[in-house]
Amino acid sequence: MRLALGALLLISLNGTAAESPLRFVVPDSWAMPMVQLERGKPIQGILYDVMVSLATQVGVPAEFHVLPRARVQNAMEHGEVDVRCYAAQSWLPNQSGDYIWSIPLWTQPDVLISRKSPLTAVVAANLPPQSIGTVLGYSYPTLQPLFDADRLRREDARNQEQVLEKLLAGRYHYAVSNQWTLDWFNQRLLPDRQLQGVAVLQTQNVGCYVRNDPKVPVQRILRTLLRMKMSGEIDDIIRLYIGSPATL
Question: What is the pLDDT of the chain when averaged over all its residues?
């Protein structure tokens, strides 16, 4: 009887340990179609669906920590969260801590956009001095020399959707957006009102990275992400939200 009880207790303890959640960090600057936040919690979106599927396939619950963008890396370094997705190594040149990166999962262009298609090609370096719609805390390497020289000025909004709303309202002539958000935003507009991509500023390969900790199933996470990418699951999730992305 004692052996049976001991075996049951061991099974129970192992089950509890296996149920430790996989903690994902979600910057509060994300907007649809990446993530929709409601009452401070993600409820849908491309990255939300990917993270939920990842945790399910790894065999643990998903737990989401919504944080200001400036606190994201600090949370990773202090072990408050385990996984950050939609990130590029070039965004974190001074990254401290022990992390393992996934393969690139998405390719995202940063696009200069306006309300109307121009008659001639737009080159950011040739624009007259003006404000450009940007997201607070985001870096724009292609435009940074122009910001530093005060030839262009940032006008920051809290998230990418707010940047596009302000462009649509005529607050400025140009803004920067990732292609996903531009495609999502345009879905709700009549064709003659849709915002136009006028130049690709840069293209980034982005993926996820995982805190390299014995308590985190790092290799299972990375293998699962690889399988999700190779099987087409991640691309299917993208198409669910934005169909076939527009190209410039």
Answer: 88
